[in-house]
Design brief:
Blueprint (H helix, E strand, L loop, with lengths): L11 H26 L8 H20 L10 H20 L7 H4 L3 H5 L3 H26 L8 H20 L10 H19 L6
Length: 206
Amino acid sequence: MEPITEKQIGTTDDLMGDFDKIISYCETLFRDKNCDYGPSWLLYRSESLNDEIWRKAKRIRTLEEHNDKMLIPEGRDVEYIGIINYCVMFLIKLDMRKTIPNDADMTERLTELDAYDNASLFEAYRKHITEIRTLLQKKNTDYGDAWKGMSLGAMTDQVIIRSYRIRRILQNKGETKVSEGVASQLHDIINYCIFGLIKLQTPIIF
């Protein structure tokens, strides 16, 4: 992998253009995998989805600490992309809690999964991405491009921290006293992954 360099981004418009490129790649991957495997990801329990996010973030940190030495040909960019899609899947599942079988029944009611229309799942994907895009635009305006001064390692740590927060919130049955809930943590994770991919300037996207 080429040495990481900071990309100088002058405006929020540039950031949002990069966001759209990254999400276009992620969405295509989501669509293709959904066509291959069906909505098998709906079988994940919330804890399992969070574990996938945690696992990928831990691998990113390991690669950072070992100068990207790896035994499988998948770098940090692939892991960031995977985290983004797991987060969107998690958000979709949170929205669908009242319309899909509960986790205890899911494996016994696979015919209901088979009946899900791909178009409705893709529409749900786009809905969440639109919300996240708006949030990123607002936060970037408020924080004044603060992410540009962050190291890639700090962004990875933010993903790990938010995954740990989700773990604690799930242990508390989703209840919080003063903090934002699971969805807000997932939104932030996606945005830190976007920043990480922009800094990496991965050739599979840019």
